[in-house]
Task: inverse folding
């Protein structure tokens, strides 16, 4: 079996940055992303949401494209959310884009801590802009 270590920090937002992610909804989203990740043999290192976006530190094997993992995680979480809340108008959607950064094992503790403290960072305005980017705007 080949040796590999491929860490990604991924972030994506709700459509139009609509603040839909409540604590109850966050659980549905996190469970769906975790379930899809396990099926794709991707290990979640940290995951957290704020009201309009999600951050995930994940180890993705080389046989899985990061873009495919993100698409699958977004797809299942959207499906699960809408199945649980069928009367929500409009239906829940993620924005089309995402941000994905690679990082090494030495940065893993920093990235995990940053993700675990997302709510605190946003409440105290201590975010790291490069870890929050979802598109190529500066």
Result:
């Amino acid at each position: 079996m080949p040796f590999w270590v491929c860490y990604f920090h991924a972030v994506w937002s709700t459509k139009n940055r609509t603040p839909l992610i409540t604590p109850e909804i966050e659980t549905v989203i996190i469970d769906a992303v975790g379930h899809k990740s396990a099926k794709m043999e991707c290990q979640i290192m940290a995951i957290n949401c704020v009201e309009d976006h999600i951050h995930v530190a994940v180890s993705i094997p080389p046989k899985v494209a990061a873009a495919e993992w993100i698409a699958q995680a977004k797809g299942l979480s959207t499906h699960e959310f809408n199945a649980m809340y069928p009367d929500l108008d409009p239906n829940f959607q993620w924005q089309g884009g995402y941000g994905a950064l690679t990082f090494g094992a030495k940065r893993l503790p920093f990235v995990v801590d940053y993700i675990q403290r997302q709510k605190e960072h946003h409440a105290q305005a201590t975010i790291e802009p490069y870890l929050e980017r979802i598109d190529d705007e500066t």
User: Anything to note?
Assistant: The CA atoms of residues 77 and 112 lie 21 Å apart.
